Amino acid sequence: MTTGSRRARVSDVHALALGMPHVTQVDGPAGNPVYQVGGKSFVFFRNARPDAFDADTGERYSDVIVFWVPSESDKQALVQDPDSPFFTTKHFDGHSSVLVRGSRIGELTLAELSEVIQDAWLSRASRKRATDWLAAQHPPSD
To answer: pTM of the prediction?
Structure first.
């Protein structure tokens, strides 16, 4: 298994988010990590909330991670597949983000998680930062 195809871990969320340029980590209301670019959150670890819970037990999920997405169509592409670890709740209707439980992050490969975090960062970074980062990732060929 290559590095990009190994199963993702919650620790990878932190490393990948911090690995993007111009990122700061702040603490959310419950001390939960929030990753921002230019003062805009793009990934954050959510505290247990009443809208995300186990349907059988009623227990609130304490391991929800929120990722921004570029558009509603991107969001729908991630949440419509019933086998996908991504989901949303009514609380996030109209919000350009998807949720995933930390306990299900391993259903993604490291490469898939990296793409989700890069897209999240790109959706929140300034146009100049996004353009500069993309150019550095794909320099023009001679």
So the answer is: 0.89
